[in-house]
């Protein structure tokens, strides 16, 4: 696993490393500010820099230095799309947003907050295929009306039609493979579990963030707190993140995710890829309607 | 073999010539062997010598195929020529959770085709996780003695197949459809049962998600005097249930359907006396259904509670208080399935009354990782303290402690099945923040009869060292999102001497660990590993070293294998080599 050895080099051994990195990061951050796309008020660094407990998932801001990233926790509403340009790595995330007052962001107290965060119950993580292990007819029990809805779509049982992928089937779901650059193991997502690009983006972040952290943890061989090591993957949909979500449609073309209405996307998508935004940069300037020719 | 020898003919003079001595032995053997019913005993007898092998093959009436691809239909049926009851299992269990693409296989057609030649006298068939078509059912229905069909977690057929079975199987006694996916072909299959008295003993169709024509069902029940088991689907309202119950007071097993009225019942409407209907069912021991329960109707079942040995509330969204009102009467209860809406308090009520409980299953009403599951270590502890005879538990929760699991291991030494599902991945003990190693370790150490274990929560390799070392009788092990390294899997493969079925997902186990099991894969039914660290090369190595192992690599889509990593490995022994019906997304190494 060649990719893994790179990750090993980046595994933080202690907080001190984290502090050191963060200082580098702040330097890098100020250079990058000019390139940032955000929805926040202009001119500001990030206004409220209080460390936030991680209550919601999940899209939060990434930070970057040359070879490390760290995420700060923040609700998705506040700002969107600080460019995340660090190489892949996974480290404990500090809770502080980097701004002009970075130093106080890296006090040990803030790093401490990362620890209890990880042990808090996560809210709204992306659903993983087949987990929890409950058969589909036991889902949707919360109201009988919703189980009746599930019935409608269940009647289109795809199992009798060989080769066809089920679309919008309440029972079987819609699983597409998703691969991320730099992560050797692909995953699967159930598109039927989402109804918007935003939720899908959250799901993708959750899915691969855990994978990166799991790779790191298992290589380290210890019982690391698996939650704290995860770097957030952001900006998947608008090209502002380190990675961008693209998909291959039923004609074999690669398309940026987010262009067409959700239902149309779901009916044509064949597989998903999380690509490095840097590889797509030449196309980002053009209209999003353009299709990306297959890269391989 | 008896068949090959001509029967002893009396000689011309009328004198009787006794059969040759070895035939006497065979006759005696066959008479004796027919008392052997357990598969394991029969398998042992068959290994004694050739004549025992033959005799056993001729006297085996129940054929069990644990993996439909482990043996070709022809080989199985030619050895056991006289079997009249067949059980076949197909897909591995993780297929239930969408971890396997549809159309993977487990087709029943090749089996039934051969049965049509060899097993025309077939009486009973049980299929689990098989793909069964309407045509297959039609062929089955043509077997003249066929009387019992049990389909569990199957798919591929619809109500048209059921209609054929209903109309053509004149001797049908049992039609049990359990957790199947049945397409609605808009055929009123209930009406297809022939007129006149039927010999139906069991009719279970609670999983069939299609409306039925109630009057036909009512007439059917009325003309089925032997009917003991009836499990209705959720399209049967409580009023209709009442009408059926008064026609069938002899029922022992009842699935109540929706247990709610079909329309809004206004206050003051004349409703039947549901309680009296239950009261009339003196033999009722097993109650289930409650698919869309209106809890106001719960008191109707009070009259039968004291006799119940099995109660399935796993679709009933009821509170602790509502449960308490029922469970306090259920002193004889042995099997109890429930939703976690009853909370820890509900489980405490169960623990207080059901001293004879053997099997408990607690399902989540909201099966998501982040849901607020209302049951926890508190409920588990209460159950362990109240239900000392517990043998089997399946428990979904969000919060658990090692202490509660350890307590259960000490309080319930009869445990045979322990399946704990902490729904949030990698969650530790919510009090001590430690991994759940010690809890599961205690289970394998203290529950000496344990044969089935499913793990969850944050687990390190240490947990697996416990399992490997102490899980002496464990046959089935399910692992998800657990372990640190190859060492974990190595512990299991080098320990657990009785391991038969190993299913693992999303755990960091790779080729090196896989290799450590080479000495035992022929003695296992299957190994499933998905989203682990296996490479194609590693799997190929195994395939090359073990020619009788079928090593399937299953990719999610039908595309090329882009990287060397294997999505899903499913491997199993087979007497007849790799299957011929593998779809394109399966690569057999």
From TrEMBL, chain A:
Domain PB1 span(s) in chain numbering: 173-282
Keyword vocabulary terms for this entry: Auxin signaling pathway, Nucleus, Repressor, Transcription, Transcription regulation
Source organism superkingdom: Eukaryota
GO terms for biological process, alphabetical: auxin-activated signaling pathway; regulation of DNA-templated transcription
Protein name (database record): Auxin-responsive protein
Main localization, broad class: nucleus
Polar residues biased stretches: 88-98
The family this protein is said to belong to: Belongs to the Aux/IAA family.
Organism encoding this protein: Actinidia chinensis var. chinensis (Chinese soft-hair kiwi)
Biased composition (Low complexity): 139-155
One GO CC term, this protein: nucleus
Subunit comment: Homodimers and heterodimers.
Keyword Repressor applies: yes
Subcellular location: Nucleus
Pfam families reported for this sequence: AUX_IAA
Its biological purpose: Aux/IAA proteins are short-lived transcriptional factors that function as repressors of early auxin response genes at low auxin concentrations. Repression is thought to result from the interaction with auxin response factors (ARFs), proteins that bind to the auxin-responsive promoter element (AuxRE). Formation of heterodimers with ARF proteins may alter their ability to modulate early auxin response genes expression.
Residue ranges, annotated region (Disordered): 21-54, 87-167
InterPro entries from the UniProt entry: AUX/IAA_dom, AUX_IAA, PB1-like
TrEMBL record, chain B:
Pathway per the UniProt entry: Protein modification; protein ubiquitination
UniProt name for this protein: Transport inhibitor response 1-like protein
Any single GO BP term: auxin-activated signaling pathway
One GO CC term, this protein: SCF ubiquitin ligase complex
Predominant subcellular localization, coarse grouping: nucleus
Matches recorded under InterPro entries: COI1_F-box, Leu-rich_rpt_Cys-con_subtyp, LRR_dom_sf, Transp_inhibit
Domain COI1 F-box: 22-60
A UniProt-annotated Pfam family: F-box_5
Region (Disordered): 1-20
Keywords linked to the UniProt accession: Auxin signaling pathway, Nucleus, Ubl conjugation pathway
Organism for this UniProt entry: Actinidia chinensis var. chinensis
Keyword Transcription regulation: no
UniProt-listed Gene3D superfamilies: 1.20.1280.50, Ribonuclease Inhibitor (3.80.10.10)
Protein localization: Nucleus
Domain annotation Transport inhibitor response: ranges: 83-127
SUPFAM superfamilies linked: RNI-like
